[in-house]
Amino acid sequence: MKSYQNIKDESEEFSDRLELLEDRAISWGFRKYKLDKVFIREQGPFMDRFQNFPEGYQEFMATSWLFTRIITDPALLQKFARSAREELFPPQNALLKTWKKSIPFWSIFIIENRLEKDVFRIRDVIKEKSYLCCSGSLEQNHLEILKHSQPVITTLIPLNSEEEGHVASYGMLRFYKGFKAKDLVRLYRFMEGQLGTGSSFSSFVLRHYARFFQIDNYMETPVVMHREHRMERIFSEIHLPGFDPSLLTVPMDTKEDQPFIRLRLKDRSLPLSGEILYNRESEDIFLSSFSRTGYEELRVALSSYPIPEEPDFHLPISLYLALEKDMELDLPDDPWKDVFGEEEADKETSPELESINILMGEAVTAQNRGESFDLYTRGKELGLLSENIDALKKVFDNLPKP
User: What residue ranges do the domains of the chain occupy?
Assistant: First the structure.
């Protein structure tokens, strides 16, 4: 059986050398580039939203940004290595030499397998490349991570090892209970398209650090389910000249408000089946669903038209809320939300969603009045599943307080 003791030894040596290197790099960044002021200017507005996190969370985030801002940027890393050569010891200089060849990077990864205690093979889902990583934190959490296929976000740092692809993690390892790795990649791609980022996930994270990590509000949020279906927000918008709703062979409920027409599958629950909106003037069609099943049913109904297999937007409902409420970004459904009004949509929601609406409405009312409210007990009275109540409580706890 193969031993990974050399991997463990090298990781321990890295940990011993890190403190001095981190201290020198951050001090250099302050002096040369005023990175502390850059951080406040770029990240300050969204950093304020972490005030309710555990003590030290904001400071930890700031330190992580400052250090990785230097070591993941080839130009800054080169300048720091040249400037600090005389004040660092040979082991630290050896690390910097390694990083010039293999630059550290921010990563979304999954655990492929546990090789032995503390040693894992992980796979970066953006680079689509596997690495060896020795981590006590992964050891403590690997059973839960593997059970739920949880993605992890952290900085990965290449080490000068005989084992190709040996990396150490730096900073916080963020585990997301209710998300899949593909959810976080989709979130990144969507935000990248909205905000403009640079050439890599690392440059994206460092540019939009505090905004992106608003998702930390949802670390412990479980998957929100409707019956056996994962609740998501799925949208596609297509320019479809010549679309004629009357030619569809699948029975549809229709509603018109010129120039718009809304189509829903007959005798289907709205959260599962979704809806089609069509603008006769622009000839644009918009597909919206709360589940992948619903999106596929809409594609079947429109099978004679070129509807994409993969939707334009596909995220868990909690990440949709994070984009809308926490990150303040425009969403694909914004132009279509009020076409038929919220009141009409509410009348046709499922009993489960009606219960969710009632529960959240009562909770917000009690909060505004300064009254106590047992969200869990009331949720059970309304017939909601425990995991859905837990998810709603997480959302409610993160709403702005009066």
Answer: 4-218, 225-340, 351-398
